[in-house]
Amino acid sequence: MEHKTSKLTPLSLFFLILILLSGIAEALIVTRDMEILYPILMWIPALAAFAAAGWRRKHEEEKGTLLGFFRGCSLRRCKVKYILLGILLPLVYLLIPYLIYWKLYPENFAYSGVALSTVLKDLAPMGIIGIFANLLTASGEEIGWRGFMVPELYRKYGLNKTLLFSSLIWCAWHLPLLIFGDYMEGTPLLYQIPAFILCIFPVGVMAGLLAIKTGSMWPAAFLHAAHNNFDQAVFGLITRGDNRMYYVSETGLLTILCAWVLAAAMYLVMRHRIKN
Fold first, then answer.
1. 174 near 183, Cβ under 8 Å?
2. What's the predicted TM-score (pTM) here?
3. What is the CA radius of gyration of the chain?
């Protein structure tokens, strides 16, 4: 009997499930104010990746092992130095803008005039523990984005196009909540959208480089978790000011500049160590 090959590819199935489920979840968040769905939304990329990896395993002539299934989503170990790099990157591109903003507007810094030892004593526990708390949801996204999507794109398009496509797709996935919801409020929408894209795109490049270099989604997951924690639960929590979103966080000009400099430097260093 002739073997029939399905026209549906794992990557196209991934996007099909991702768009369908994300659209439902984001619509409920926006129209019904169901913020409780945010953690579920962040795990939809993982669900889409698991479904696509399972479909591929089922339709391969030589079915792989269960271990191979998980490796298909890049759930594998990597060197600790890449995990630490994933944590260090957002610390650098987020902290530098906040430090500059606090210097420019000391009245908007909750710890203005307080000894550095006191600041570190108060913020260090949340800065560390919060990463692991955020990892619970960040992993859901990264299993899908950098665990499944990036390797699939890389095999087909090579390094540069993969970094471009994956980062743009990641940006686009956030846009409905940015446009219709209350995500990243504090600036006009016409400024907010391009600023957000310009900020998140280089973060996607950094996460993509880590995933391709290591073959693991964990460095990107820790980068994502550290980014969310440092920005929302640490630095953002101790910063006031109606103008802060123009300088810091995910729409700040200073953050955009720092993120692009880091992403460019990382790309120039790592591109020669990655097979294109």
1. yes
2. 0.94
3. 20
